[in-house]
Amino acid sequence: METLLSIFSGNFSLRWQDLFDIVLLSLIFYRILLLIRGTRTIPMLMGFVLLLALYLVSLILNLEATQLLLDNLGQSLVLVLVVLFQTDIRNALAQIGVFTLFRESNQQKKDVVDNILQACLVMTQQRIGALIVFEQEVGLKNYSDRGTQLNATVSEPLLLSIFHPTSPLHDGAVIINTKGDLLAAQCILPVSMNSRLSSFLGTRHRAAIGLTEETDAAVLIVSEERKEISLSYRGQLIRGANEDIRKALMEVLSGNIPAAIQDKETKDAARKAATEAAVKITGTSDSTESSEIPDNSSQSPDIQTEKN
């Protein structure tokens, strides 16, 4: 209370320890939100927030019966939280450690990527098409909810069984969350309407590009016709050797933009600027030519006005 009074009175001095304290707590809460994102913890926490808001209303309006009920509930709140969130707390504690509190496990990412690429390599040999989506900061719940929920651990046999032509789940894409879990299959992706795309690209490639145009997700595409693996990110398409695709995908999952994507975006920006400049020059020449042609219809009203 004294701290709040000093803030409002203007006598509060901010130390470097206070700044460090704020940054530390912000990082901890951010990490906690990442851990509980996409779990059942979020809606349950919203219920506790509503109870807290109700308790504040009861204090303001002096609702004694409501205060008594919520006070008794608050005394056993810690036990209630442990019972309700025991599974989530166990999983969070398993993930949090000295070396994993503020960074993701790079080895886990590499294992997931290697398993997926190995499955993609087998699918290219067997001429099986596939779409594999990697969720990033932007959630893909709108797409995963429309598919078939799996919530399974990613593995090579699982992907091969999903995308096998005889499987009922082979149509559409699979979505993998930031933890490396396979959320859903049979997910329908938005098809890109970009007119500059090559006419040789099929629906599968256009769907991958369409999703990466709208979100920050990365999508692996396996083409059964070309027997190749490609990567779509930020509305661009990367083709090349499997090792190059793996390197680019690891850069994307680490929060970086691959050099191939940067080059494509630079070329697109230069091409767009040149097109706009050409259109501007053409528009200027057209307006100059039209200004040199006399407009008789615009002159006749002026002459009539002068006579009147």
How would you describe this protein?
The chain is an alpha+beta fold and 308 residues long. It has two domains: 2-95, no CATH class; 106-262, DNA integrity scanning protein, DisA, N-terminal domain (YojJ-like (1, 3-Layer(aba) Sandwich). Helices cover 59% and strands 12% of the residues. The protein is built from 13 helices and seven strands. A seven-stranded mixed beta sheet has the order 2-4-3-1-5-6-7, sandwiched between helices. The N and C termini lie far apart (83 Å).
Structure summary:
With 308 residues, this protein is of the alpha+beta class. The protein has helices at 2-9, 16-36, 41-61, 64-75, 77-84, 86-95, 106-125, 141-144, 156-163, 203-214, 242-253, 259-292, 296-307; strands at residues 130-134, 148-153, 173-176, 181-187, 218-223, 228-233, 236-239. It is globular, with a radius of gyration of 29 Å.
Which fold does the CATH topology of the largest domain refer to?
A: YojJ-like (1
Total tally of structural domains: 2
Strand content: 5-15%
CATH architecture term of the largest domain: 3-Layer(aba) Sandwich
What string, H for helix and E for strand, traces the elements in order?
Answer: HHHHHHHEHEHEEHEEEHHH
Number of strands: 7
**Given the C-alpha coordinates, what overall shape results?**
globular
Topology overview:
Elements lengths: L1 H8 L6 H21 L4 H21 L2 H12 L1 H8 L1 H10 L10 H20 L4 E5 L6 H4 L3 E6 L2 H8 L9 E4 L4 E7 L15 H12 L3 E6 L4 E6 L2 E4 L2 H12 L5 H34 L3 H12 L1
Parallel strand pairs: 1-3
Antiparallel strand pairs: 1-5, 2-4, 3-4, 5-6, 6-7
Helix pairs in contact: 3-4, 7-9, 7-11
